[in-house]
Amino acid sequence: MLDGMGIRFDTDVPIGKEMTWYGVGGAAQVLAHPAGVAQLSALVARCYEQQVPVNILGSGANLLVKDRGVPGVVVKLDDLAFSQYKVQGTKITAGAGLDLFKLVLECAKDGLAGLAHVAGIPASVGGAVRMNAGGAFGDIGSTVHKVQVMAENGQVYSRDRDDLVFGYRRTNIVAPYILDVEFDMDEADPQDIARRVKEIFLYKKSTQPMSENSAGCAFKNPSIVLPGHDSDEDGPPPPTERVSAGKLIDQAGLKGYRVGGAEVSHRHANFIFTHPCCTADDVLALMDHIQQTVLDHSGIALEREVVIWP
């Protein structure tokens, strides 16, 4: 199908083991590397016409590829066209394929404040915006001004800030492909920004198992109704708060629990890491066990944060 399109591609590529942070899982039927927006548009339009599934592979930091692999086309936005970083006053535009931490460091060097709070989050810019990546210091969506996206038929259009909604680990962007993101920044002293970036990065390093083969937080922090407030169909929704999924998993006695080669981290219970013998099925089985055990222990249902392919 891709012959004659001028797009570089390979078949049967072991993306799970070689291109995800878990380091487990199967292969992509096709891994394509379009050289710019025009090639990407032609590729996704042809896949749309022929009903071939397409997935975008970012940094692989929040992804589990099932052992059976991924059918169709996996697209890697690793061409320089998707990794541009442009500055216009206090507005910056970053390509979807640009590494998020590299963007944070570039902004600090240029004296542009607004993204230090996502330091240490492993992601591509596109993936980070797609899931509104963030943590204790804030989410990336707070700084997003505009997003250029592509529809499943290859059409390109923009979504402006007034049209965007960012919630906890979600956005209202329905277009399957993010091309670039414009951020609204503030001028600040480069040394002050660099100091803040270092402070946040060291905090994450001290509290999270960053040296292990892990995809970050396995589950979203659930939202629960505050004690003493009941839900009333005729009244306003009761007040809620988010509770730590890691704390719930810890309270259920699951730190160090292991299924095959997948294990719950002793440092942070919301992190699952993989041993050399691990398979994707081990990770999935451990996730299922965690969800059921936490539900039995606290009555709270955990929702996966890690994306599962296919």
Give a written overview of the molecule:
- Helix 3 runs antiparallel to helix 5 (190-207).
- The protein has three domains: 8-80, Uridine Diphospho-n-acetylenolpyruvylglucosamine Reductase, domain 2; 83-193, Uridine Diphospho-n-acetylenolpyruvylglucosamine Reductase, domain 3 (2-Layer Sandwich); 211-309, Uridine Diphospho-n-acetylenolpyruvylglucosamine Reductase, domain 1, CATH 3.90.78.10.
- 25% of the residues lie in helices and 29% in strands.
- The chain has a five-stranded antiparallel sheet. Strands 1-2-5-3 form a four-stranded mixed sheet, with no helix packed on it.
- The protein has helices spanning 15-19, 37-49, 100-109, 125-130, 190-207, 245-251, 280-298, and strands spanning 8-13, 28-33, 54-57, 63-65, 70-76, 85-88, 91-95, 112-113, 134-135, 138-139, 144-150, 156-160, 166-167, 170-171, 177-184, 186-187, 214-217, 223-225, 240-242, 258-259, 262-264, 271-274, 307-309.
- With 310 residues, it is an alpha+beta fold.
* CATH C-level of the largest domain: Alpha Beta
Residue fraction in strands: 25-35%
- CATH architectural category of the largest domain: 2-Layer Sandwich
Seen as an oligomer or otherwise, the chain set is single chain
Spans with pLDDT under 50 lasting ≥5 residues?
none
Order of helices and strands: EHEHEEEEEHEHEEEEEEEEHEEEHEEEHE
Give the integer mean of the pLDDT values: 96
Discrete helix count: 7
| Secondary structure tally: strands | 23
Strand order, biggest sheet?
A: 6-7-15-11-12
Radius of gyration: 20 Å
What structural class results from the helix and strand content? Answer: alpha+beta
How is the main sheet built?
A: 5 strands, antiparallel
